[in-house]
Amino acid sequence: MVIISCVRMFDPWDTMVAQSTFTNPLIYSDFPDNDVSKGPDGDYYFSASSFQFSPGAPILKSLDLVNWELIGHSVPSVAAFGSTFEMQDTPAYVSGVWASTMRYRASKGKWYWYGCIGFSKTYVYTATSVTGPWAQAGTISHCFYDCGLLIDDDDTMYIVYGQTNISIATLSSDGLGITKTAQLFSGPGGASEEGSRLYKINGFYYVLGDRPSGTTYVWRSSSIYGTWTYQTLQTGVSSPIPGGGLIDQGSFVQAPNGDCNKWAVSYPFPGTSAAPLPARNGTDAFSGTSPGPGWEWNFAPDTTKFSINNSLTLYMATVTNDLYKSRNTLTHRTDGGSPIGTVEIDFSGMADGDSCGLAAFRDSTAWIGVTRSGSTYNLVQVSGATQDSSNKWATTSTGNTIASKSISVSRIYLRVSMDVRPNGAKSATFSYSTNGSSFTSFGSIFTLNSTWQYFTGYRYGIFNFATKTLGGFIKVISFTTSGSS
Ligand SMILES: *[C@@H]1O[C@H](CO)[C@@H](O)[C@H](O)[C@H]1NC(C)=O
Ligand SMILES: *[C@@H]1O[C@H](CO)[C@@H](O)[C@H](O)[C@H]1NC(C)=O
Ligand SMILES: *[C@@H]1O[C@H](CO)[C@@H](O)[C@H](O)[C@H]1NC(C)=O
Ligand SMILES: *[C@@H]1O[C@H](CO)[C@@H](O)[C@H](O)[C@H]1NC(C)=O
Ligand SMILES: *[C@@H]1O[C@H](CO)[C@@H](O)[C@H](O)[C@H]1NC(C)=O
C-alpha cells in the first residue's frame, strides 16, 4: 500500500485558469487503497484505508475526479472493533481499516461500507447520507479480506475478496449475511493478488486485481460464478513522484466525459471545472463542538477526556511516559512534499509531571513540546520514540531529549516542518514562537523512517500525557497547515 495518491486537492489558483490537463498526484497525501464509485447524484466518492486511526474509513468527494474534498468517515469510532482499539492490553497498531469497499444501494436508499478487521470478521456500516450519520448495521463472521462490492442490476450484492486466491460471496438481501461463496481464481503463477474490485460493464463481470509488485490484472467472466480469464492491464508502473514506489490498488471509473484511461502522469481534464472546494491548507480553530473530517485520533479516544467548544481542551487521559501508550493523540495527515504544521497551545492548565506537544508521528517519532516539573516549564525536543514492528508494535524507546530550556510563557506556537519527498531529505525539523510570527529553530533534525510495515505515512500528532497524576489539561487554540504548492 503506497502513500501516493490518485487525485489532487483543490488549489484556489485552479479556478482562475480553466483546466485543460491535470497531473498526478492529485492528492499528495495518505489515502491508500482507494475504492472510487459514482454516487446517486452522479458525483464521485472515494473510500480509503485508515488502520488504527479513529474515526476510520475516510470519504472524499469529487464532481470531476480531479478536485477532491474530505467529507467524512464510514466508521464513526474504531472502539467498535474491541478494547485493543481503545489502547487496552496490546494496542492494535496498524490493524483496523484495511482495503475496504463502499457503494450506494438505490433500492434501500443507503450507502454500504464493508471491511474485514483484524483478519477475523467483516463489519458493515450504513448511512442514508454519505456525510452521515453512519451506523454499524451488523457483522459477518467471515473475513472479506481486501474486498470489492458490486450491486448488480437485480439488486443482488456480491463481494469479491481474498489474497492470492480470490473468492466471491453472494450476500443475503439485507446485506448482512452470506448465501453462497466460491473461490474463483488464483493470481497468475500463484503469486500474491490483492485489492480486488468488482464491476459489471456491458453484461460482463470484471475484477480488477493488483499485485503489490506493481502489476494490475483485469479478470472477466460472463457470469459471476463462471469461468474467469485475465489480461494484464499494466505492469511496473511507477509513482509520478520521483523516487516513489510502484502503483498498487485502484478503481475503475468512467470520467464525466466518458473516458476510461490507463495509468499516466498527465491527462486531459475529464470534464468541466467543478465548483471551488475549500482550501486544504489553512487554520483550524476548532469551532463548533466536534473535530472536522481532517482529524483522526490515534485509536478511539477516551471521550470523557476532551471537549470542543470553539477551542479544543485535552485533559490528560493517561499516566505514562510513552507516547505510544498515551490516549487521545489527535492526528492530521500531511499534504505535499514539504508539509508544515503549527499548533498554538495554552498549557497553563498542565499539572506537575505533564507533557504536551506536536509530533511527527509514526513508528519512529520525534516531537517538540512542553513539560512541567514542579513550577518549572521546559520547552523540549524529543527524538527517537520507536516501536518494534516484529513484536506487536511494542515500544522500544520513549525517545531521547535532544534539547530543553525553561520558558516563562503559558501559551506557545509549536511547529514541525517535514520533507517527506521520497528523493528528499526525509527530515523533520522543529521550531517555536511566542507570537506566531517569528519562529526559532529548536532541537535537531530528525530523520524520518519509511519502512513499509507501518503502512501509514507520517502524521501530525497533537498529544498530552501525565507522568504523575491525571487532572491537568491543555487548550489547543488552533492548528495551521501551511505552504503553497
Ligand atoms: C489457493 O487455493 C489452492 C487450491 O484450492 C490451494 O491449494 C492453496 O493452498 C491456496 N493458497 C492459499 C494461499 O490460500
Ligand atoms: C461554550 O462556550 C461558551 C462561551 O465560552 C459558553 O457560553 C457555552 O456554555 C459553552 N458551551 C458548552 C456546551 O460548554
Ligand atoms: C514576535 O517576536 C519576535 C521575537 O520574539 C519579535 O522580533 C517580533 O517583532 C515579534 N513580532 C510581532 C508581530 O510581534
Ligand atoms: C527505520 O526503522 C527500521 C525498523 O525499525 C530500522 O531498522 C532502521 O534503522 C530505521 N531507519 C532509520 C533511518 O531510522
Ligand atoms: C499545503 O502546503 C504544503 C506545504 O507547503 C504544500 O506542499 C501543499 O501542496 C499544500 N497543499 C495544497 C492543497 O495547497
Automatic annotation (TrEMBL):
Q: Which domain of life is it from?
A: Eukaryota
In terms of InterPro entries, this protein maps to: ConA-like_dom_sf, GH43_C2, Glyco_hydro_43, Glyco_hydro_beta-prop_sf, Glycosyl_Hydrlase_43
Q: What is this protein called?
A: Glycosyl hydrolase family 43 protein
Keyword terms, alphabetized: Glycosidase, Hydrolase
A single BP term in Gene Ontology: carbohydrate metabolic process
- Beta-xylosidase C-terminal Concanavalin A-like domain location is 284-468
PANTHER family the record matches: BETA-XYLOSIDASE, HYDROLASE, PUTATIVE (AFU_ORTHOLOGUE AFUA_2G00930)-RELATED
Q: Which organism was this protein described from?
A: Hyaloscypha bicolor E
Q: Which residues cross the membrane?
A: none
